[in-house]
Structure formats: C-alpha cells, structure tokens
Amino acid sequence: MEPLRALAARLDEASATLTDLARRVTATDPAHPAFGADAAGRPGEIGRALHRRWTAATDERAREAEAAAARLAAAAIAVREAAERYADTDAAARDRLTGPDPGPHHPPGADVTGFRPAGPAHRPAGVDVPGHRPAGVDAGGHRWLGAR
Hints:
The protein is mostly helical. It has helices spanning 2-27, 41-98.
C-alpha cells in the first residue's frame, strides 16, 4: 500500500502548491497606476477598465486554483482510505488463510487471548470449538482452493 500512500502524499503536495498559488496570484496584482488608470481622459478610462478586467481575471484564476486544490485534497483522502481498505482486506485474507497473527507478546500457536486452542488431542471427536475450524475451510464450511 506504500505506492498509494506515496501518491496521496504527492496529491497533498500538489494541493498545497495550488493553495499557495491561489493566494499569491492575487497578492501580486499590480496597482491601478500600472495600467494608466490614474491618467486623465480616455487613456485613464481604458486603464481603469483594464485594471478591473485584470483583477477579475486573477480573482477567477485564484478561485479555480482553490477549487482544484480542494479536489486534489479530496483525492488524497480517497486514495488514503483506499489504501487502508486494501490493507484491511489483505489482513483479513491473510488471517483467513493462515489464522490471526497472535502478535509478539503471545507464544506461537496461542490465540490473541493467550490461550492455546484445544487441538484434536484435547477434545473428544466430533466436538467443535466455537471460532475454530479445520485448516482449509472458511466460515461457511467451504474448502479453500488447494486444501485437501
């Protein structure tokens, strides 16, 4: 699942970059005198109109960048959740095939409670222990592929 987690991290980085860009695109707008908006007459009118259009365009680009950043952040969350679900599914499949991992604090062969399950030598024939089933048989009583 590491490739998915790495992808989520890259999506987060891209989202942060776009968020920063959205902030900086409007922060660096030139003042209206740069467009000649302070000139008298028709040149001043044109300068003011250009400045309004410039401001409107950069504001719109900032909103678009913010929206894209939000979509990338949402994608990162979805990828992380998918990675976790894949990991959970892998663990469940592994447990189904090999039995649960007792962890480092339990002796080999012990279940997670620390008790050894009763083996055939410890229970009478035909007595089923709840939660335990023969190797190669799932909870529905179906044999796994390759089990004999």
